[in-house]
């Protein structure tokens, strides 16, 4: 029985009245899902997201949103088997589903962790340090990011229905934006099940997540300037949607992840028999066959030093010959089917175009064998390897994306030629360079990094831990310039920022401190009788400052410290040599001695709410201290964040000054404090 796919809008499932769009199994050809031929009321769905989902998410702080994203990841993992079973109909082997489903859960877990560790406790993101805008320090500028008050409309491609959904959903929810998902119809049954799993986890507030299965109709007519469209798919669809008049009129943020002619380059040092040669062959075969080559990051162009072309061809043919195509549930099958017969027809058309300038060296697009499956009913295709010898006149190999198990070998002369050829793709998502020659890799990247969103430089030293050419990672940017769409997704905090609005706020230090919830240089300080180390995290007030008494730094302190630590650098120990130094003009105290004395001055020693010192950041030594100088310290509560129910991090601004009030050293101290 086919699954009838429902929309989920206005916080309930709506079974379509007219489910006329049929989706067939990639393997058996039977109808597996029916989608609506008309969308629900998208204007109402967008209003609902803006009116209920957005405010509910924005009421949560970042750690609470991170908890919610984590709950979705856990729910997905707990029920992944359901998705693995459905994945069969999309032609996925167990390994393909692992990429999609476990990869999706992994992206959510990673975002939950980014949210918990890297985002503040509030709802506002502070970007960088404040800028001093006036001479006297009474006027500051600070970039902040707040949640956009619209809806994130996320349109996904068919090839990763779960991962693609998760890698966009996590950042949007963390940013405080409700989401309307529009999956590709060809695999919407997987996306719909995934959304059901999320909703049944009961973690999301009303209006935070909605789903449309089937076409969007005139949905774009109802977008406004606070909405974000995050699109993944072909360049042709992206261009059509980007040209929608409402996108231009309302200035709707449009993030596009499009198709890409990714390349992999074998270094001239990677001769047969080297680890790099074997790595290269392994990467190519994996990229051609995982998801039957239906990966936006898959290697389409195999660039090889001309002298090694025959060796590479031989090795690839041998490895591709071992790939068994067929029923993806079988353990002895390495590659399943393409998503649909229509997709296979499209790939065959593209192969025919590529064959205009490249010869077929492995695989026959018209001869299909499928182990354990009906080769006529399913969308099977063997791996297809092409070879382009006439590089000078070739253009199709750099322009046509056959979105299937298809790649073309292209010979190159030298590093400059390889970079030029790689760049002919007009902007790609992923480039890999497989070489152990650091000079070759460095020169290549200098001239081609700007054309690629991510570059893997693979060699024997990183192979054991490498995540491979085709795997986008949540903490690294996914996207590419030019043809790849110019979009950027994921990349840790960067991915979250797409769903937030950056604002430059100007004002007095006190005002900026109040708005950001962090102490700012020049903002009023408070002080009191109680040492701040006696206060629990919840009691610490931003701006509360402890001023220490003065301490003299003597020559014998410096010598004692030098001998005790072994740091007898001449600037501390040799008056003549220190005098000749253009910066010191005589012996000076060690920077680490100043830090140690500072701690000795501000630490309150008895057991209390401060549990541990766990580091310093942004340390600068600004003016040296000479024997006989006196130092004192101001310790100010800059920011704080509860990281666990019973404890959290306090960030202290520390400034060390001399007897004349001049700044000697400044840094931020991090402590773990009881909550
Ligand atoms: P596609 O045909 O362009 O469709 C992409 C999405 O756009 C689908 O959800 C599709 O829905 C939707 N869509 C089409 N017309 C629309 C309209 N008028 N209004 C709103 N939505 C509309 O691409 P695909 O065949 O699914 O995916 C394959 C392509 O995606 C390949 O070229 C691949 O390189 C690219 N891709 C890129 C990335 C990346 O991160 N850069 C990742 C994966 C895939 P329907 O299915 O209902 O038409």
* Strand runs, count: 28
Distance between the termini: 56 Å
**Domain module tally:** 3
Ligand types: NADP nicotinamide-adenine-dinucleotide phosphate
The amount of beta strand, in percent, is 15-25%
Helix segment tally = 20
Instruction: Calculate the mean pLDDT score and round it.
Output: 96
Gyration radius, rounded: 30 Å
What does it look like?
The chain has 675 residues and is α/β, with parallel strands linked by helices. It has three domains: 264 residues, Aldehyde Dehydrogenase, Chain A, domain 1; 212 residues, Aldehyde Dehydrogenase, Chain A, domain 2 (3-Layer(aba) Sandwich), CATH 3.40.309; 150 residues, Thiol Ester Dehydrase, Chain A (Roll). The chain is built from 20 helices and 28 strands. A seven-stranded mixed β-sheet has the order 15-16-17-14-13-18-19, with helices on both faces. Strands 23, 24, 25, 26, 27 and 28 form a six-stranded antiparallel β-sheet that branches. A five-stranded parallel β-sheet has the order 10-9-8-11-12, with helices on both faces. The protein starts with a strand and ends with a strand. The mean pLDDT is 96. NADP nicotinamide-adenine-dinucleotide phosphate binds next to helix 7.
Please outline the helices and strands:
Layout: E1 3-4, E2 7-9, E3 12-14, E4 21-24, E5 31-35, H1 42-59, H2 62-78, H3 80-87, H4 94-118, E6 125-132, E7 140-147, E8 152-155, H5 163-175, E9 179-182, H6 188-200, E10 209-211, E11 228-232, H7 235-242, H8 245-250, E12 253-257, E13 262-266, H9 275-289, E14 299-305, H10 309-320, H11 341-354, E15 359-362, E16 384-387, H12 396-399, E17 406-412, H13 415-423, E18 428-434, H14 438-448, E19 452-458, E20 477-478, E21 489-490, H15 493-497, E22 500-507, H16 509-516, E23 545-547, E24 551-552, H17 555-565, H18 570-573, H19 575-580, H20 591-602, E25 610-621, E26 630-644, E27 647-658, E28 663-674
Parallel strand pairs: 1-5, 8-9, 8-11, 9-10, 11-12, 13-14, 13-18, 14-17, 16-17, 18-19
Antiparallel strand pairs: 2-3, 4-5, 6-7, 7-22, 15-16, 20-21, 23-26, 24-26, 25-28, 26-27, 27-28
Helix pairs in contact: 2-4, 2-5, 2-6, 3-4, 3-6, 4-5, 9-10, 13-14
């Amino acid at each position: 029985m086919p699954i009838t796919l429902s929309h989920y809008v206005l916080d309930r499932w709506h079974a379509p009245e007219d489910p006329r769009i049929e989706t067939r199994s990639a393997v058996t050809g039977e109808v597996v899902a029916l989608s609506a031929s008309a969308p629900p009321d998208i204007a109402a769905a967008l209003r609902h997201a803006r009116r209920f989902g957005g405010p509910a998410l924005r009421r949560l702080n970042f750690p609470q949103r991170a908890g919610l994203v984590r709950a979705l990841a856990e729910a997905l993992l707990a029920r992944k088997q359901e998705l693995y079973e459905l994945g069969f109909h999309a032609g996925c082997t167990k390994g393909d589903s692992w990429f999609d489903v476990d990869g999706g859960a992994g992206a959510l877990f990673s975002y939950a962790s980014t949210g918990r560790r890297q985002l503040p406790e509030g709802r506002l993101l502070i970007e960088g340090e404040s800028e001093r805008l006036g001479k006297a320090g009474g006027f500051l500028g600070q970039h902040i990011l707040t949640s956009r008050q619209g809806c994130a409309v996320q349109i996904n491609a068919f090839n990763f229905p779960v991962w693609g959904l998760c890698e966009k959903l996590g950042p949007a929810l963390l940013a405080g934006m409700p989401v309307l998902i529009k999956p590709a119809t060809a695999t919407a049954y997987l996306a719909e099940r995934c959304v059901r799993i999320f909703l049944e986890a009961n973690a999301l507030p009303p209006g935070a997540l909605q789903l449309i299965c089937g076409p969007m109709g005139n949905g774009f007519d109802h977008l406004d300037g606070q909405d974000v469209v995050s699109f993944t798919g072909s360049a042709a669809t992206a261009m059509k949607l980007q040209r929608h008049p409402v996108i231009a009129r309302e200035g709707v943020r449009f993030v596009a992840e499009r198709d890409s002619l990714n390349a992999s380059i074998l270094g001239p040092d990677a001769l047969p028999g080297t680890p790099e040669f074997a790595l290269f062959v392994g990467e190519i075969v994996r990229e051609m066959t995982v998801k039957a080559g239906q990966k936006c990051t898959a290697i389409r162009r195999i660039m090889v030093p001309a002298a090694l072309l025959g060796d590479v061809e031989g090795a690839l043919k041998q490895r591709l010959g071992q790939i068994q195509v067929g029923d993806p549930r079988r353990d002895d099958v390495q590659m399943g089917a393409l998503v649909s017969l229509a997709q296979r027809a499209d790939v065959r058309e593209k192969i025919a175009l590529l064959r205009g300038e490249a010869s077929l060296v492995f695989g026959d697009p018209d001869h299909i064998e499928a182990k354990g499956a009906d080769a006529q009913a399913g969308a099977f295709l063997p791996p297809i390897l092409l070879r382009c010898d006439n590089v000078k006149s070739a253009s199709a190999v750099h322009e046509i994306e056959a979105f299937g198990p298809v790649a073309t070998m292209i010979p190159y002369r030298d590093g400059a030629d390889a970079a030029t050829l790689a760049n002919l793709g007009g902007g790609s998502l992923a480039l890999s360079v497989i070489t152990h020659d650091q000079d070759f890799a460095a020169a290549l990247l200098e001239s081609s990094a700007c054309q690629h969103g991510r570059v893997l430089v693979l060699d024997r030293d990183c192979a054991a831990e490498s995540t491979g050419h085709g795997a986008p990672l949540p903490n690294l940017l996914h996207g590419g310039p030019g043809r790849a769409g110019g979009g950027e997704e994921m990349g840790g905090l960067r991915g979250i920022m797409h769903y937030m609005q950056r604002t430059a706020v100007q004002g007095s230090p006190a005002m900026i401190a109040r708005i950001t919830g962090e102490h700012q240089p020049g903002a009023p300080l408070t002080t009191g009788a109680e040492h701040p180390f006696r206060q629990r995290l919840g009691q610490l007030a931003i701006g509360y400052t402890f001023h220490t008494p003065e301490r003299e730094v003597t020559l014998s302190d410096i010598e004692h410290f030098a001998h005790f630590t072994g740091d007898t650098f001449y600037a501390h120990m040799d008056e003549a040599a220190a005098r000749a130094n253009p910066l010191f003009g005589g012996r000076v105290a060690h920077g680490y001695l100043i830090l140690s004395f500072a701690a000795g001055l501000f630490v309150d020693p008895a057991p209390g709410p401060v549990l541990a010192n766990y580091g310093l950041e942004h340390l600068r030594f600004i003016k040296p201290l000479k024997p006989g100088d006196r130092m004192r310290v101001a310790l100010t509560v800059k920011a704080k964040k509860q990281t666990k129910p019973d404890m959290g991090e306090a960030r202290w601004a520390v400034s060390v000054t001399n007897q004349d009030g001049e700044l000697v050293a400044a840094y931020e101290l991090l402590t773990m404090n009881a909550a």
